[in-house]
Design goal:
Strand 5 and strand 6 form a beta hairpin. The chain is α+β, with helices and mostly antiparallel strands. It contains five helices and eight strands; from the N terminus they run ααββββββααββα. It has one domain.
Length: about 200
């Protein structure tokens, strides 16, 4: 193994292995494809796409990294994409996000999940709030943000920021995924496309 491989961010590889371990048929896409631009502003970097070949609403995953600095450790966001015909009008934008409430700031245990949503996300947000599986998902893995996609991308995106580490690392810490968590993510997708 050469030096470049040793210091390469392997977050995408780790997540793919977790998915394969729970029976999800998936592969690593070629680098540079258009899907890497999903929620990828200039100050962040896509680590590449994981294609989902199994029959699920989530069709691909984009892993985004923001490089850290001296006082700001790196951060990673995982975007689970659900292609679907949505409105081309950006005023129909839907956003639903979780806020994890801790028993003690920074290192405390998660005691509850609170959901916030915009006016267009009211119906979807109310359904998600009532799902014990989706609440458990956020409690176990990290904050979740659900957004409708318009213009270049059509459908929905589920953003997940895995529990953060206070230390600078090459690859994302705490990458995990079991079948119940994967099913809960797809339950979110089902609620999205059924949303009226």
């Amino acid at each position: 193994m050469n030096i470049k491989q040793i210091f390469r961010d392997k977050t995408r590889d780790k997540l793919q292995k977790k998915l394969l371990d729970i029976g999800i048929n998936c592969d690593l896409a070629e680098r540079g494809i258009v899907e890497e631009k999903l929620f990828n502003p200039w100050h962040r970097t896509s680590l590449g796409i994981i294609n989902i070949n199994s029959d699920y609403l989530i069709k691909y995953i984009n892993i985004i990294k923001k490089w850290g600095s001296k006082n700001d450790p790196p951060r990673w966001w995982i975007y689970f994409a659900i292609p679907f015909k949505t409105s081309e009008n950006k005023t129909d934008y839907i956003e639903v996000k979780s806020i994890r409430k801790k028993s003690f700031p920074v290192f405390g245990k998660i005691k509850s999940i609170e959901w916030k949503f915009n006016d267009k996300g009211n119906a979807l947000g109310n359904k998600i709030t009532k799902s014990s599986e989706i609440n458990s998902l956020s409690k176990e893995l990290g904050n979740i943000k659900i957004q409708s996609l318009h213009e270049k991308f059509s459908g929905y995106s589920i953003e997940l920021e895995f529990n953060k580490s206070p230390f600078p690392l090459i690859s994302a810490p705490n990458i995990s995924m079991n079948i119940n968590q994967w099913n809960a993510l797809n339950d979110i997708g089902k609620l999205c496309i059924e949303n009226k």
